[in-house]
């Protein structure tokens, strides 16, 4: 087990912001998914992400753009940002793994670890704790894991088939990839030039026991913004949290 130090925590990150967000239409007709505003906050998803990364000690962020890249780039130029941001645009589709590799090549410290997050994740938890967890396990890559709530009500039954309880939107029994990562410096070299790292690099690292899973602490906020319903739910939850 490697002992973590403040120096082993990343100060750089990649935000993957190239998705089309077709399930979020009409919000994404004129803007990329990370530029969709969380209702009531006046700030797009990526604005919340950059603020969170800055709070967690990140100073440099590479934003990988795709769909309607210029809308995102214009906002980044005009906004008062808490971190130094560089944007990269794929000139041809490279797939998720290739896109991540291309973005990582623009990080300012190639010999240091880095965070990555999908551009549609709206969350708050300690990235510093996740980085220490990654270091302690000597992992090459660590995935944040979430237990999303199932969108339907669940039913509990006893051994005789009698219904004993109804549970509204229970948490899933399975953990899912929460779309937030810590990567060691060597990870970029293991990514494919094109294609999906979740089908190649991750399974390879899992077989070698070099892939770790950090469970987001209970009570921490996490939501993937995929649909219009997610936007309204996020606004409701934020109002309840008083943010």
From TrEMBL:
<protein>
    <submittedName>
        <fullName>Nucleotidyltransferase family protein</fullName>
    </submittedName>
</protein>
<feature type="domain" description="Nucleotidyl transferase">
    <location>
        <begin position="13"/>
        <end position="239"/>
    </location>
</feature>
<dbReference type="InterPro" id="IPR029044">
    <property type="entry name" value="Nucleotide-diphossugar_trans"/>
</dbReference>
<dbReference type="InterPro" id="IPR050486">
    <property type="entry name" value="Mannose-1P_guanyltransferase"/>
</dbReference>
<dbReference type="Pfam" id="PF00483">
    <property type="entry name" value="NTP_transferase"/>
</dbReference>
<dbReference type="InterPro" id="IPR005835">
    <property type="entry name" value="NTP_transferase_dom"/>
</dbReference>
């Amino acid at each position: 087990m490697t002992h973590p130090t403040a120096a082993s925590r990343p100060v750089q990150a990649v935000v993957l912001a190239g998705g089309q967000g077709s399930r979020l239409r009409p919000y994404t007709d004129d803007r990329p998914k990370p530029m969709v505003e969380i209702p009531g906050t006046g700030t797009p998803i990526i604005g919340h992400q950059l603020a969170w990364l800055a709070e967690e000690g990140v100073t440099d962020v590479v934003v990988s753009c795709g769909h309607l890249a210029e809308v995102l780039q214009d906002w980044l130029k005009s906004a008062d940002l808490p971190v130094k941001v560089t944007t990269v645009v794929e000139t041809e589709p490279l797939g998720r793994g290739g896109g991540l590799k291309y973005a990582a090549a623009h990080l300012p410290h190639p010999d240091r670890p880095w965070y990555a997050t999908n551009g549609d994740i709206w969350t708050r938890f300690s990235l510093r704790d996740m980085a220490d967890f990654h270091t302690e396990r000597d992992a090459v890559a660590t995935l944040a894991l979430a237990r999303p709530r199932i969108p339907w009500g669940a039913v509990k039954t006893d051994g005789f088939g009698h219904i004993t309880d109804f549970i509204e939107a229970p948490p899933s029994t399975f953990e899912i990839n929460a779309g937030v990562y810590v990567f060691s410096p060597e990870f970029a070299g293991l990514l494919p030039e094109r294609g999906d790292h979740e089908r190649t690099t991750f399974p390879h690292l899992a077989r070698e026991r070099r892939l770790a899973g950090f469970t987001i602490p209970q009570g921490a906020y996490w939501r993937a913004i995929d649909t219009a319903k997610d936007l309204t739910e996020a606004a409701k939850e934020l109002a309840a949290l008083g943010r």
